[in-house]
């Protein structure tokens, strides 16, 4: 790992403000594709799958290839200067194996696996990923509600009903926004440790406290554009850092 590259990547995430207008041609929209491994005979646990998805995004965003003159730097710059989009698909068997050949980063949590790909034009998406199914991506299980002792925590909104595919994109967004809460030195240590994080469902009481923390700058909320499943402007996930 190159600490200077992580610092450069971290600076990009801290400077990200979002917003902007979409291009007229839908094919010109910039998006990060994500793939969740969901084998038909042995699907993963929901918590593990969402954790792997969020970690894959964080690892990609802080990868040395995304900094400086790296091969992913220009694509990451363009994506972070546009309206952030993430689209999660599902794969199994040979589909999953083929997806590993496309530029990106795979993360695991227990027996769950997810891969985040270098962002680019929707119209240029690699056929090995483009052919994978988007809608109806779901697995069983419930997220725990108890807070871990320390570290990056991504809290989901208890009042929203989202498929695991939708939520994977949301926690992926939250993991990159969590970098705003880290110092450069903390970001280096986090990346060196392979970006450990926890995905939890907030209780209604905790969610209200997290909204207050977001307003005070002590946490960072993801507000969805509302293209699928939920209303525009909905707060889907809030990232916070629990420090000892």
Automatic annotation (TrEMBL):
<protein>
    <recommendedName>
        <fullName>peptidyl-tRNA hydrolase</fullName>
        <ecNumber>3.1.1.29</ecNumber>
    </recommendedName>
</protein>
<dbReference type="GO" id="GO:0016787">
    <property type="term" value="F:hydrolase activity"/>
</dbReference>
<dbReference type="InterPro" id="IPR002833">
    <property type="entry name" value="PTH2"/>
</dbReference>
<dbReference type="InterPro" id="IPR023476">
    <property type="entry name" value="Pep_tRNA_hydro_II_dom_sf"/>
</dbReference>
<dbReference type="Pfam" id="PF01981">
    <property type="entry name" value="PTH2"/>
</dbReference>
<keyword id="KW-0378">Hydrolase</keyword>
């Amino acid at each position: 790992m190159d600490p200077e590259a992580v610092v450069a990547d971290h600076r990009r995430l801290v400077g990200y403000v979002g917003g902007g207008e979409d291009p007229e041609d839908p094919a010109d929209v910039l998006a990060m594709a994500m793939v969740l491994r969901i084998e038909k005979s042995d699907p993963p646990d929901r918590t593990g799958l969402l954790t792997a998805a969020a970690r894959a995004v964080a690892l990609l965003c802080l990868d040395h290839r995304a900094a400086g003159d790296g091969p992913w730097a220009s694509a990451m710059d363009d994506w972070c200067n546009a309206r952030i989009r993430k689209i999660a698909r599902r794969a199994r068997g040979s589909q999953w194996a083929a997806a590993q050949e496309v530029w990106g980063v795979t993360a695991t949590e227990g027996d769950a696996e997810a891969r985040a790909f270098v962002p680019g034009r929707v119209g240029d998406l690699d056929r090995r990923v483009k052919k994978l199914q988007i809608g109806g991506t779901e697995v069983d299980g419930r997220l725990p509600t108890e807070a871990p002792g320390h570290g990056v925590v991504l809290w989901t909104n208890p009042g929203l009903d989202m498929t695991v595919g939708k939520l994977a994109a949301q926690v992926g967004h939250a993991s990159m926004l969590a970098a705003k809460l880290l110092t450069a030195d903390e970001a280096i240590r986090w990346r060196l440790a392979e970006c450990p994080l926890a995905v939890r469902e907030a209780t209604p009481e905790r969610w209200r406290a997290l909204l207050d923390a977001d307003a005070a700058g002590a946490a960072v909320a993801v507000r969805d554009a509302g293209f699928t499943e939920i209303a525009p402007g909905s707060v889907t996930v809030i990232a916070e850092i629990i420090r000892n």
